[in-house]
Write a structure and sequence with these properties.
- With 167 residues, this protein is an alpha+beta fold.
- The protein folds into two domains: 1-64, Roll (2,3-Dihydroxybiphenyl 1,2-Dioxygenase, domain 1); 77-167, 2,3-Dihydroxybiphenyl 1,2-Dioxygenase, domain 1, CATH 3.10.180.
- It is built from three helices and ten strands.
- The strands form three sheets. Strands 1-4-3-2 form a four-stranded mixed β-sheet.
- A hairpin with a 6-residue loop joins strand 9 (141-146) and strand 10.
- The longest helix is centred in the middle third of the chain and has 13 residues, at 85-97.
- The radius of gyration is 19 Å and the shape is globular.
- The two termini are 34 Å apart.
- The model has no long low-confidence stretch (mean pLDDT 87).
Length: 167
């Protein structure tokens, strides 16, 4: 029942642990266009910062914590939305112009994706569109992706099929 569900209002910000605030800030500025909004000083030292994106990207906070940055490296903690396939391809071109390696633009059952962009600490940033390339699902269906990637096979599966019944 909807009345029993707490009222939530989106994501306030994303936070990443980093080994070097200046290096990470420079990367997020150069590659994605972020700017500093707030600096957090603790015991006389810069401990973190919050960044805003001038074209609607999610707010991102960076926290100086080398130990956690090392533990979290390589994981895709979140995905950032991009408006359309065209905008995704423009992002890929920008990344190419910045000399940043990424996984290219691919269709998935939940939208277009650009994976495998890594920040200086190795956090993977993924970008998805809200639009899907193959249309909406009928009631009672879900999609199953086999071997995600550029050569994925995507099936439409009845919701009554158990999750473990891959085929």
């Amino acid at each position: 029942m909807v009345d029993d569900v707490p009222a939530l209002d989106g994501v306030h910000h994303l936070k990443l642990p980093v080994t070097d605030l200046a290096r990470s800030l420079a990367w997020y500025r150069r590659v994605l266009g972020y700017r500093i909004e707030v600096e957090f000083v603790e015991e006389g030292r810069l401990a973190g910062l919050a960044m805003a994106h001038p074209a609607g990207g999610p707010p991102i906070a960076l926290r100086h914590d080398p130990e956690w940055a090392a533990r979290a490296a390589g994981f895709d903690h979140f995905a950032i939305a991009v408006a359309s396939e065209e905008a995704m391809r423009a992002l890929a071109a920008r990344l190419d112009a910045c000399g940043e390696h990424h996984g290219g633009v691919h269709a998935t059952p939940v939208g277009w994706i650009l994976p495998m962009l890594r920040d200086p600490d190795g956090h993977e940033l993924r970008f998805y569109t809200w639009e899907t390339y193959d249309g909406p699902l009928a009631p009672g269906q879900r999609r199953r992706v086999h071997d995600p990637g550029p050569h994925a096979r995507i099936d439409t599966v009845d919701e009554s099929v158990p999750l473990s019944a891959a085929g």
